[in-house]
Structure formats: C-alpha cells, structure tokens
Structure to design on (847 residues):
C-alpha cells in the first residue's frame, strides 16, 4: 500500500492503494467516480477512457503509481452540468442505446477534438475506432463528433 | 465534497441512487403505471428491464400519449420487480410491446377520463363538453382550463372507467416521434446507473474461478490467495472458487495465486468433436419432422435439378459491454438483490429456491443494463451473489471479468443447417427439405416460415446435441443464423432457376397467398410490402455502381427486407451500404426504432464477419476482445432505414433486423465475386480472403 494524491476533475484526492492498482479501480472502488467503465481490462475497448493532461488514456492499464502530478479528467469532470460540446452533441443526437460505452466514447471524442478541432470524417473514424460499442451506435457517434466540432468555441 | 477536499481510501460511496426517487409531494396514484402530484408532476413507472432497447422511454410515451400529457412534465421512474402491480416484467423475445401496448394505453386513457370527470364535477358541466390537450382539461365554451395536477387528488378517487376509446393514429402527438432517451442526461454525465456501479456500505467484492465445461474440482490450494492483502475469504462452492475481498484489484491479484485442478465430470468436448458430431447428425435417419407437406422423397427422386447446401456457425459470446455482475445482501429478515436481469421474476424465484427463502422476503431492484442480448435471461450470476452473501453473511457484489464473461458459457449455440431444394425443368421450386442441428440449441428451425405454404413438398426437422457447454438465447435465437443460412440458400435457388431473387420471392409469396399448401403463419402482404419497399428504395436492379444482395425475414412479429451494396475498390469488394425496409406495425419511438434497426444490422454483420468461440477440452480459446473481435466504427457501412406506414399494433424490434443482415451481405458478395459464403465467421472463409471488410 502507498499513499497518492491525485488531481481529478480539479479536486485533490488522497488514496491509499497498492501501487500497481489501475486508475480505473481507484476511481470506481475508492472514489465513487463510477462513470468510467470497465469493459475489457486490456486496453481493447475504450470503455475506461479518461484524460491525462488532456490526452485520452485507458485507465484500466494505467497504474496509479505512474500518474504523479498529472491532471486527470473523467466523464464526471468533463463539464459541470453536461454542457461540454461533446455532451451536448451526444444528447442532441440521442446517441446512447444501453449507454455503457458512451462515457469512454465521449472522453475519446473530447480529447481528439481538442487536438483536431476541424476533423474530416476519416479522421473521426480513425480516432474513434478504438472504442467498441456493442450496441452499434457507431453512426450516431460519428455524427455527434462532427456536430460537437461545430459547437466548440 | 468540498473543492480540494480529501477523501479517505476505502470508503464505498453509496453510489447508486436510492431505489426509487422521492415521489413528487402529495402525488396520487391512478394505476400501476401512473401517479400525478398536485404540482403537476406526471410520474410514469416503467416496469420492464432496460438493456438498451429503449423500453424505459417508449413504454411511458404510450401512457403519456393516451393521457394527453405534456411530455415535459413527465418523470420516468424505473420500477422494481413487483408481480402484484405488473406482469411480464421481462426483456425477452422482443415481446414487451406486443404484450403491453393495450395495458399502457389503458393506463393513460382511463386516467384521462377520470381527470375530465373531476373537472366536470368542479365546473358543474357535462364531461362530454370537455377536451384535453397537452396536460390540461379544457372547457372551451367558457375558456376555462385546469392542469392535471390541480385535478389529480379528486380524480384519483373516482371510479376507473371500464370502457375507453383509444386515440386514432392520426391524433398521436408522441407516438411515432423521435423522443430522446429519458436517461440521456445521466448517461452523458457518468451517473451511476448500472449493476456494476452498485456500491454499498460494508460491501465485499467477489470474483469466481469456474471449472472448464464438463469438469469438476479435483484439488484446490487456496492458501496463497487467502493470505493476500485485502482478501476476506476464499470460498469453494459448487465446483467454483470465489475470492472475496475489499477491492477489485486486490481480488484480481489474489485470484491469480489460486491453484485449482480439475477432472472430468461428464463429456469434455472440443470444437472438433462438435464439428464431427453435428455432421453425423445431419445424416441421421428417422427424425420426427416438425412440419411435413406433400411427398418430399418422391419429388426429390424425379426433380430436374437438386441443390444441397450446408451452413455452419460457431458458438458466440453475448459480449454485453457491461460484464455479468450482481449485488446480494442476504439478511436474517430478508434478501436484497440489485443488478442486471432480463427476467427478474425468474431471478427472484431461483434465488428463493436456492436459499429456501420466501419470495415475499426478496426484493429485486432493476438496474439499467449495459446490453443483454439474451445473456441476462439466466440467473447463474445472480445466484452466485446470493449464495456467497448467504455463506459469508455480508453484502456482496459478484463481478465477472471480461475473461470470465467470454469463457463462462451461455453461448449462442453452434449450429449447422442442411438445405435441399428440388426444381423442375422449368425452374419451378417443387420440393424443400431443411434440417437444423445444434449444440444445446433446442429447436433450431422455424417450420412454419417461408417457404412453408409456397412449396408443395416440404419437410423440416431439427436435432439437438446435448452438451455440457452452456448456451442461452442470443439476440434472435436460432434465427440469428437461420436467417443467414436460409436467405443465402433462397438466393442460390433463384440463381439456379435463372430468376431475379426479388422477383422469384414475390412470385412464391403470391403462390402461398393464392393456393397455400398447409398453414401459413406469416402475413404474406406485409412480407411483400417490405420487399417492394426495399426494392424501390435501393433502386434494385438499377444501381450500376454497386453489386446488390437481397434478403427478407420475418421474426418476432415484424417483417424486414434488406439490400446490401458492395462496390469494388482496387479489385476488392467493399461493403458500402445497407438499405432496410421495416414493418413493425406502429413505430412507437422513431429515434429508438432507428437505433434498434441499425444496431441489429451492425450486430448481424459484425458477428457474421468476425465472431467465434472455439473450445479445446472444455476451455474456450477466446478470452477477451483481442481474440474475440467485435465490429468497429471503420467497418460499419452506411445504413438506410425505411419504416412502412402502419396502423397495426406494434410488434418486436429489438431482434428482427439482425437475422437477414448477413445474408444480404453474402448475396451481394456472390454478385461481386461469384463466390458463396457458407460458414461463419466469414473472414475465415477462403472466399473472403483478400476482401476488405475491416
Ligand atoms: S476497460 Fe480499458 S480499454 Fe477496455
Ligand atoms: S451504447 Fe451499448 S455499448 Fe455502446
């Protein structure tokens, strides 16, 4: 066990966990931030995607000891009330089916758009291809990323 | 928590919201589904389990429609299991809408009449002079109006009308519109909704090592696992080993130290065994037919042309995005169950039986499910939670990892079909024979479906091989592969007869209509309707750029025809587009309906292209998404969906779009390359090598 101070969604959290614990389980088990989902545990599905200093990472394979002072953003911290352009687009296009994959989809999309604010549809597909949606909401996800790009200031 | 505050390690937050949100103050109940509060909050309970089929939105829409409510004032609440108030709280067989359509309409329509009656009394006018609109009762003559909240308390005490007239379709304001998912706001902000999000004070986590199929525990050394930090206990029960501890990661790590040996306990089977067995069963004599018309033997002897084809499919994992999990707290005074269940009533019954506890003592709270696809119709995982909680006398959440989920069985059965058709010298289809063989597949045929009624000499039978490999319904059971096999075969028949597949199909449907042989249990006009619509919308036969493949299928009361379009790019076939025409009666929620059809098609294509679970000595070879490939965004074609305008009561939509999808693709693939696909997954077929399908 070791102590870590984590910077998540602009707050500081102190946790005592084993150092190889993946961030995903620290978020879910220790901090009650359950919006970040478990889907595979081996960086294959994207359900657990969060931002680390603004870059999308797979929290299921990110040991807590590797985070240091970097800033973490989860779906709960993407915006205060769901008004991030990606969240707005997701809502406007009624994207979710079961909804389980969607936090990860939105975290991938929002990190991608902050680096590539005016993407082509090929670039959108490339960026989103790592996130599985078992329900098959891919069309709406693609449209929502494009719509979110138009909403960004 | 205040900004910058510190949260101590290991404290379960009470992550899931309270079982039912506080009722709107002073609300009165009109029936099982509906309550209204004086401040005009319309609360509608949605009784059925939500797996992503959008029932939690579409059921309340129907109540609100007949109530003439303002959707903005509607608050939807997921009901818990309550067999007193509701029946068929089930997600199975795409049957919810067919079952509940009238009940839901009645719930809204009777309450509306009661509200009007209350207004009539208050204004001292006849209720015949009143109308309703958008959550108000109006007396147009005098220009008076009252919202439902203002009338609710009086109205709820009035007798419930026995006679109601439902709205005509043309007057619908909600039904048929694209109404957004009622859980959107919570889903997009990451609120706890799912079984895996359940955390309770004092809760322990359990992961379970399960035996390979057909084996039992020979020896288990659990000492090392038990000694690991955070581990509360290691429990052996029913040839399973459960590691129970305080955090997911500690349990994950301890589990790796288990040393468990297994020994055979029945047949220990591999995929090679199933392949051999199923082929043998294809030739079995004296099988009782499930339908027989005319004389198949005779016509096959004299036919000008005989076509025989076999189609084979592997086991599939349901691969719900949210793996299996369940929370149970067995106390001396009762049992609390929380989690994902497609058949909650079964879950409760099974837990009652397992623990020897009265059903009345068990509560079951239904969480939103990260997919179901039939997998969560089984109670194996919820019973594990109940058993462990009872053994350890603690609240417990059982969690399956993806590996557990993929290796733990309840697969779509492995299947093989043999089809035979007899044609006369003029290309007339005079004989049809079909046999289905599956591993724990039950009846894998649909003996009364097309071409039943259209072909005079007809024989269908099915054989089930019993195996320790557990299977369960998988989205559109049997039909998920039968649809492909049969619709591919029909394409071959039309090709052998030198006829256009759509024209040929329509001709035989017409034949079944004019002079049916035996019973016809599908609606021929609805089937023709979707075929004609898909032909028109896809520009069938007129599209010079694409190679088109056709299929049409009836299941769960609905009719769907599809056309797949393949284009050649740099010499490779590329699936560009799917066009679907759908007749599911009245479309309740247009947004959800599009999702079900598109999602069903993508599911059908993805699993046909990539999906496969193979076994060696009772152990599945595939463990996770690196070896069990699911379709991804880049592999998905455009999908265009057209609904038939209909006033028929709504029928199933969660499943029907899936079965015909792979056949449309395979038939287009044949047009593009001259090669047929017979076995799934397609990407392992010789014929598809070099093609670009992701
Ligand atoms: S759970 Fe991390 S990528 Fe699947
Ligand atoms: S919405 Fe169900 S997995 Fe994506």
């Amino acid at each position: 066990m070791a102590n870590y101070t984590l910077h998540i969604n602009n707050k500081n959290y102190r946790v005592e966990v084993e150092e190889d614990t993946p961030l995903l389980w620290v978020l879910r088990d220790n901090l009650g931030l359950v919006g970040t989902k478990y889907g595979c545990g081996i960086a294959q599905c994207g359900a657990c995607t969060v931002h680390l200093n603004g870059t999308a990472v797979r929290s299921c394979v990110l040991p807590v000891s590797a985070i240091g002072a970097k800033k973490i953003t989860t779906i709960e911290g993407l915006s205060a009330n769901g008004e991030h352009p990606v969240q707005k687009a997701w809502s406007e296009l009624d994207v979710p089916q079961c909804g389980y994959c969607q936090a990860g989809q939105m975290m991938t999309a929002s990190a991608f758009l902050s680096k590539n604010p005016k993407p082509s549809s090929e670039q959108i597909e490339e960026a989103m291809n790592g996130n599985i949606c078992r329900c098959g909401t891919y069309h709406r996800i693609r449209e929502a990323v494009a719509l979110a790009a138009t909403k960004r200031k | 928590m205040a900004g910058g505050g510190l949260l101590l390690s290991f404290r379960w937050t009470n992550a899931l919201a309270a079982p039912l949100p506080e009722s709107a103050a002073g609300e009165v109940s009109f029936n099982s589904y509906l309550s209204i509060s004086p401040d005009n909050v319309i609360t509608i309970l949605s009784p059925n389990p939500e797996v992503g089929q959008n029932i939690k939105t579409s059921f309340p829409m129907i109540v609100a429609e007949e109530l003439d409510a303002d959707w903005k004032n509607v608050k939807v609440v997921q009901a818990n299991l309550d067999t007193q108030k509701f029946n068929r709280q089930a997600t199975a067989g795409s049957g919810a809408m067919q079952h509940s359509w009238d009940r839901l309409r009645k719930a809204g329509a009777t309450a509306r009449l009661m509200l009007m009656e209350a207004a009539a009394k208050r204004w001292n006018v006849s209720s015949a002079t009143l109308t309703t609109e958008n959550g108000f009762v109006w007396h147009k003559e005098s220009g008076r109006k009252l919202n439902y909240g203002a009338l609710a308390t009086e109205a709820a005490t009035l007798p419930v009308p026995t006679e109601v007239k439902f709205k005509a379709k043309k007057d619908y304001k909600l039904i048929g519109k694209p109404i957004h998912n009622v859980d959107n706001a919570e889903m997009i902000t990451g609120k706890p909704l799912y079984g895996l999000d359940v955390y309770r004070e004092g809760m322990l986590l359990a992961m379970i090592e399960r035996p390979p199929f057909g084996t039992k525990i020979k020896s288990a050394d659990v000492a090392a696992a038990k000694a690991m930090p955070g581990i509360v206990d290691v429990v052996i029960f029913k040839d399973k080993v459960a590691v129970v501890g305080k955090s997911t990661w500690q349990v994950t790590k301890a589990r790796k130290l288990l040393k468990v040996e297994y020994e055979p306990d029945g047949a220990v089977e591999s995929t090679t065994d199933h392949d051999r067995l199923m082929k043998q069963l294809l030739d079995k004599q004296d099988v009782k037919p499930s339908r027989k018309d005319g004389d198949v033997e005779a016509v096959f002897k004299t036919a000008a042309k005989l076509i025989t084809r076999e189609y084979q499919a592997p086991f599939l994992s349901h691969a719900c995005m949210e793996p299996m999990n369940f929370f149970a707290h067995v106390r001396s005074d009762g049992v609390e169950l929380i989690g994902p269940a497609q058949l909650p009533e079964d879950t409760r019954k099974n837990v009652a039986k397992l623990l020897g506890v009265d059903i009345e003592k068990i509560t079951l709270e239904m969480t939103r499910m990260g997919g179901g696809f039939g997998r969560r119709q089984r109670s194996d995982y919820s019973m594990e939670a109940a058993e462990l909680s009872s053994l350890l006398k603690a609240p417990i959440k059982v969690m399956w990892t993806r590996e557990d989920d993929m290796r733990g069985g309840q697969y779509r059965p492995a299947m093989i079909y043999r089809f035979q058709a007899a044609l006369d010298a003029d290309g007339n289809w005079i004989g049809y024979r079909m046999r289905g063989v599956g591993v724990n597949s039950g009846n894998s045929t649909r003996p009364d479906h097309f071409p039943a009624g259209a072909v005079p000499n007809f024989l269908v039978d099915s054989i089930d091989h019993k195996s320790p490999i557990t299977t369960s319904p998988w989205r559109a059971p049997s039909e998920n592969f039968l649809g492909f096999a049969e619709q591919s075969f029909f394409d071959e028949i039309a090709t052998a007869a030198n006829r256009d597949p759509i024209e040929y199909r329509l001709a035989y449907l017409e034949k079944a209509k004019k002079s049916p042989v035996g019973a016809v249990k599908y609606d021929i006009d609805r089937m023709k309707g979707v075929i004609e619509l898909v032909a028109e919308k896809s520009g069938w036969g007129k599209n010079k750029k694409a190679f088109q493949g056709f299929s049409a299928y009836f299941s769960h009361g609905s009719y769907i025809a599809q056309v797949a379009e393949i284009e050649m790019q740099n010499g490779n076939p590329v699936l560009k587009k799917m066009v679907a025409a759908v007749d599911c009666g009245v479309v309740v929620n247009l947004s959800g309906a599009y999702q079900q059809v598109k999602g069903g098609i993508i599911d059908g294509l993805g699993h046909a292209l990539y999906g496969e679970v193979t076994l060696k000595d009772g152990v599945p070879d595939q463990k996770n998404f690196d070896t069990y490939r699911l379709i991804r965004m880049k592999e998905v074609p455009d999908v265009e969906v057209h609904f038939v305008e209909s006033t028929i009561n709504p029928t199933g939509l969660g499943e029907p779009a899936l079965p015909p999808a792979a056949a449309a693709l395979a038939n287009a693939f044949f047009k593009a390359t001259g090669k047929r696909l017979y076995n799934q997954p397609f990407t392992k077929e010789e014929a598809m090598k070099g093609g670009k399908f992701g």
Confidence is low (pLDDT under 50) at residues 1-22 of chain B. Chain B touches chain A through 74 residues (CB under 8 Å). The first helix of chain B runs from residue 55 to 67. The pocket of FE2/S2 (inorganic) cluster (ligand 2) is lined by residues A 96-102, 133-135, 137; B 52, 321, 371 (CB under 6 Å).
